[in-house]
Design a protein that fits this description.
Strand order of the largest sheet: 3-2-1-4-7-6-8
Structural class: alpha/beta
Helix content: 40-55%
Shape: globular
Oligomer: single chain
Radius of gyration: 19 Å
Number of strands: 9
Number of helices: 11
Distance between the termini: 35 Å
């Protein structure tokens, strides 16, 4: 078992917001059962290879994932109680907070990622790690234009990024499906600046037509721009071009030759993907499947 620290996070406020609105935020699973199954399967696959897996959540998240589902996290941290004052549309704030509290090398892995082998030691030794680089993905240009138009207050590193990228019309960033590394000082600086961007511009958020791209800006674009400004190279787990369809991340028919599955965006709505995740979970972890069914039946928090 590898004892490198793996982190997952679950901030329930965006989840509750999506239920209140009776519609899932962009990229969500077909239904609440599949949402729970995704969380379960993701950590259970991680626990096949890692002995130090931490959950960063809030009280309600701990009740659902630990008390009800009994997921085998090695540590539970409820620091996300501290960010309840932020708008639920800012779903990446939960992840930023989870990064901010780390004090040793770590890899944060989204709860819609499933692995069939451990990550290479060479990757885990790097200062900064991401899933892959992104180039000219539509929402980078969209949010950068809106931020310029509404005169958002930005750290100097992001001013350089916005001005240079807008001039060249070439917007770059990283995908934070996995993110982490050994340079904890960088993560302290990065997360501090992320909260500064949010807090200093909080009163202007309603000027943005959509808040989802703003999450990408203060999480993924900021991480990328700081690495450039500080001359800190980022090591991508996938060092190949990723198409706009993200098909390279969902090769379920190539498992186990393909050992990493990340159903990004609309792939969570794919019937084939949902069936694959559902059957993999039910067949390999029947006791946890029963816990999911029981949680849905009891519905003691009136969430599902």
């Amino acid at each position: 078992m590898n004892d490198y620290k793996i982190v997952q996070s679950f901030w329930t406020k965006p989840f509750l917001h999506s239920i209140e609105k009776k519609k899932a935020k962009g990229g969500s699973w077909l239904n609440n059962e599949m949402f729970l199954i995704s969380n379960c399967l993701s950590v259970l696959k991680l626990k096949e290879f890692y002995s130090n897996v931490e959950l960063v959540t809030d009280d309600l998240g701990a009740k659902i994932l630990i008390d009800d589902l009994g997921l085998p996290y090695d540590k539970v941290n409820t620091s996300l109680n501290e960010i309840n004052n932020y708008r639920p549309e800012l779903w990446a704030v939960g992840k930023i907070k989870a990064y901010a509290i780390q004090d040793e090398p770590f890899l944060h892995i989204d709860n819609d990622i499933f692995i069939w082998k451990e990550f290479e030691e060479e990757l885990l030794s790097k200062a900064l790690i991401c899933q892959n680089f992104e180039n000219n993905v539509e929402y980078y240009a969209l949010v950068t234009e809106e931020i310029q138009k509404n005169n958002f207050e930005l750290p100097v590193e992001m001013k350089n990024y916005v001005e240079a990228k807008a001039t060249l019309n070439n917007f770059e960033g990283i995908n934070a499906g996995i993110i982490g590394g050994c340079d904890i000082d960088f993560f302290k600086m990065y997360t501090r600046k992320a909260f500064e961007i949010i807090d200093k511009n909080y009163s202007k958020l309603d000027l943005l037509p959509h808040l989802t791209p703003f999450n990408v800006f203060f999480e993924q674009a900021l991480f990328y721009s700081l690495s450039i400004e500080k001359n800190m190279p980022i090591e991508p787990y996938i060092n190949l071009p990723i198409s706009k369809t993200f098909s390279e991340l969902v090769k379920i028919h190539d498992i186990p030759r393909t050992s990493y599955i990340h159903p990004v965006s609309t792939w969570k709505k794919s019937l084939n993907m949902n069936e694959f995740i559902y059957m993999t979970f039910k067949e390999n972890y029947p006791e946890y499947y029963e816990k999911v069914k029981k949680t849905l039946r009891n519905n003691q928090y009136e969430l599902f």
